[in-house]
Amino acid sequence: MISPLAHIHPSARLAAGVTVEPFTTIAADVEIGEGTWVGPNVTVMDGARIGAHCQIFPGAVVSAIPQDLKFAGEHTTAHVGDYTVLRECVTVNRGTVERGRTAVGAHCLLQAYVHVAHDCAVGDHCVISNAVQLAGHVQVGDWAILGGTSAIHQFVSIGAHAFIGGGSLVRKDVPPFVKAAREPLTYAGVNSVGLRRRGFSEQQVLEIQDLYRIVFLSGLNTQEALARIEAEIPASAERALAVAFVRAASRGIIKGPGKKGLDEGAD
């Protein structure tokens, strides 16, 4: 159902079954998938690519231009995956020339007042809680959960299945499968509850815990820790993901508890 009180540009491409409520504005270069509900007082701007069966609540703005002084009007996009929910006043800015797109995956929940800046990439099945702020170029892996009012520094990566405690300032990369909390942000264990809920076996959880004990609690530097992991921890998809993430962490990873950072660049 399309409300007669909505303003939809004739060039916008809306699939079958899309609902648009009153006082919503949809620009010309927009695609919206079947069955998506766009609530009242939503603004969908040029470059929006919204999937099927999404829900977009009042006050949300999808695909506004980047808050980046280098942006020169280039054609870029903002993508929202199927079955994703954008709650009240969520903002998802489109990309810049560097990556060309901002992307939020499928089956995500972005709660009220979340901001996703230009060139971010958010995976599938993520929960981003109220008032979380993602700066430009942030990457968030699948199944990650970000606690409310957290602020994520530009270019930070957060690994798959990670859990960030509410109110966190995330200045360093957060490896997959871990919990991070406190100030400054610190390793707080493995996200074992979340992993078990998603079908990880007890053996998988134990091996992940062993792996991160080496990274965060052994006193070894990063390269020594990775070498020991590859020598002592059985090969698995989880080990490969964790090792590759830590090795590629250009900003360095978060600290271990009560210790100086494990990377030269740690705060």
UniProtKB/TrEMBL annotation:
It comes from the Bacteria. GO terms for molecular function: acyl-[acyl-carrier-protein]-UDP-N-acetylglucosamine O-acyltransferase activity. Residues 173-254 form the UDP N-acetylglucosamine O-acyltransferase C-terminal domain. Its EC number is 2.3.1.129. InterPro entries: Acetyltransf_C (IPR029098), Acetyltransf_C_sf (IPR037157), Hexapep (IPR001451), Hexapep_transf_CS (IPR018357), Lipid_A_LpxA (IPR010137), Trimer_LpxA-like_sf (IPR011004). Keywords: Acyltransferase, Cytoplasm, Lipid A biosynthesis, Lipid biosynthesis, Lipid metabolism, Repeat, Transferase. It holds the Pfam family Hexapep. The keyword Metal-binding does not apply. CDD domains: LbH_UDP-GlcNAc_AT. This is UDP-N-acetylglucosamine acyltransferase.
